[in-house]
Each structure stands twice: as structure tokens, then as C-alpha cells.
Amino acid sequence: MIRKIFCTARDRQQLRENKGGETASEDTPVDFSRVIIKPWGYEYIICQSGDVAVWRLFIRFGEATSLHCHLLKQTMMIVLSGKCKCHTLQKPMILHPFDTAVIAEGAFHSIESLSPKGIDIIEIDSPPLLTDLVRLEDKYGRAGKPY
Fold first, then answer.
1. Has residue 28 been placed in a domain?
2. pTM attached to this predicted model
3. Strand-strand pairing, 119-126 and 74-81
4. Total number of domains in the chain
5. What is the pLDDT along the chain (147 residues), one digit of tens a residue?
6. Does a structural domain hold residue 143?
7. What letter does residue 31 receive in the DSSP assignment?
8. Where are the alpha helices (DSSP H) in 1-147?
């Protein structure tokens, strides 16, 4: 099933109130030859062009990405294995293998792993701007901090 997550008035209000977030129109160089360790698991880039970046994410059981949004890019999350909860400022939704969430620019979202073996996700970003990130909440102390 494909779920669409739109930017709502609540998302726009949070963006106006958020003082510590960072976004950029220029990207920060990333060493794509390595896995990027995150407090919730890890990610690595599969491929990138000038229009799109494709990432693989692994999120450990009980862990979650920050509640964040992207001002300039649209994101698509495809669950490969496991069950997860996609949190938004509206209501959470449960995603199963092969479910997809299409997340509009400016829509806050977070992915939480509900599976004991963790979850595998493909993330597709367009355009591929790594620093286009505004963190609203983060249980690892990264709220308001850049990528």
C-alpha cells in the first residue's frame, strides 16, 4: 500500500517555531564508500545522480529516526522487511513489508522499528540534498542539529 504524507498547517507552524533546525540548498560531501553509523542503526547510499539518491537504512528494534522534515526534497520510504511505525504530526501509521510512504516537502516524519530483528528500508530522495534537514525532536539529543 502506498501512503502519502502531506505538509499540513501543523507542519508549517512547527517550522515557523523551530529556531535550531538547519537546512541548506548546497549539499555536504559524504564518503559514499562507507556505512554511516547512526544512533538508531545505519545507512548507506546505493546510488546517486543529480536528481535522486537511493539509500538503504537499517533501524534496530525499538529505535527511531528523529522527527524531522525536508524543506526542498520529497522522500519515499519503501519497507523491505519488518514492521514499522511512521510518526507524523497528524497520526502515526503502521507500515509492513513493501508498504511505501511518500513524504512531501515540509512534512515532519519519523520511522520507528517495531520488529525484533529490526527493519530494512529503501529511502529515495529527490533532489539528493543531504543537509536539507530540520530536526524537531530526537531521543538521541540531536534536535535542532544538522545532519
1. no
2. 0.84
3. antiparallel
4. 1
5. 888 888 889 898 888 887 545 554 444 555 656 899 999 999 999 999 999 999 999 999 999 999 999 999 999 999 999 999 999 999 999 999 999 999 999 999 999 999 999 999 999 999 998 889 999 999 998 887 777
6. no
7. -
8. 9-17
